[in-house]
Amino acid sequence: MVLTKDEVLASLETVRSPDGTPLPKTGKLSDIVVSDGKVFFSIAVDAAVVQAWEPVRGAAEAAVRAVAGVRSAMVALTAERSAGSAQQAPQAAPAGRGRGAARAPGGQGGPAAVPGIAAIIAVASGKGGVGKSTTAVNVALGLRDLGLKVGLLDADIYGPSVPRLLAIKEQPEMTGGSKLKPIMRYGLAVMSIGFLVEEETPMIWRGPMVMSALTQMLFEVEWGELDVMVVDMPPGTGDAQLTMAQQVPLKGAVIVSTPQDLALIDARRGIAMFRRVSVPVLGIVENMSYFLCPQCGTRSDIFGHGGARHEAERLKVPFLGEVPLHMDIREKSDAGLPVVATEPEGVHAKIYRDIAANVRGQLNSNAAIRPAPKIVTEA
Ligand SMILES: Nc1ncnc2c1ncn2[C@@H]1O[C@H](COP(=O)(O)OP(=O)(O)OP(=O)(O)O)[C@@H](O)[C@H]1O
Ligand SMILES: [Mg+2]
Description:
The chain has 379 residues and is α/β, with parallel strands linked by helices. The chain is 33% helix and 20% strand. Bound molecules: adenosine-5'-triphosphate and magnesium ion.
């Protein structure tokens, strides 16, 4: 029997808004996405009343989970900014218990830190297909090799690829509470928006809904204590990316680019975006920097190697390293066997470890790795 939207809607009749209206009649529900037993939707409320709606969100999730055939339910609260606000991007209300207050203490206005996680860094690119995810995975593993406890969060709503890059087939399980357990792979704690949405449905995850999903992946996953979390961002510099850059408490961003001029123009946009939201750019990685012939070992600079290094100098951001275009990286990556984990003695693993060391150096010099805020367990 296939689960339908109508069944989901019917289950929500018993859930009441703060003023007592059955939820489906409030006009605040987004489209309901039902996919393979997984249900997602959002409730759009006024930012001022988010707190009052939090129990409604929880009740809606519980009601949907109780429907036969539902494997998981994710309900997000989203709050539109009022008109006239300085920022254009949609703003999601932090979802979950009391998370309406999830802003930095002391009125700094930035997003609040995630308990237990010392530093969150974004791996971003102005343009798709430059090897951002491959870099994110291997740099995360490189940071692991430095002895750090590392998490990897795949926030690429347009094409989550971490499950493929790490050959993860299983779904995350729930903890005893209402949190999700990250999947452990090669010593990394991993979570992907791809675990929650089917590959065919990513376009629904835009704007406020995306943000709320991201907030949930940060706060409602039992990450434990992490030194660094690496976030694989969606490529580009549009509204969704800008909102993410604003909403995730980032200690820094790593920009991945190929050496071609066109890619570098996009990389520049990426840097500008992070600067705009006051996130330090930790540096640029040049990927597919040069071609090493696997047969003869000859090196050719097919894309005009060095462009990213020059660009980094010009923009006064650190240059973190260059990764060659190599079949091995591609084959391993696409087979879910990232080189840093599976060929740790190889040249490519060393390149990624060096980049990871540079990333850590930049984080430290920004004094970004500080003791993580304590995890407060609820009574
Ligand atoms: N240095 C490299 N050498 C060879 N192949 C690479 C290298 N880096 C990435 N690739 C390959 O290029 C393709 C794109 O890489 P990847 O998925 O990491 O890019 P991306 O920037 O995350 O793309 P998207 O924008 O789709 O998210 C993959 O098939 C990957 O294996
Ligand atoms: Mg990717």
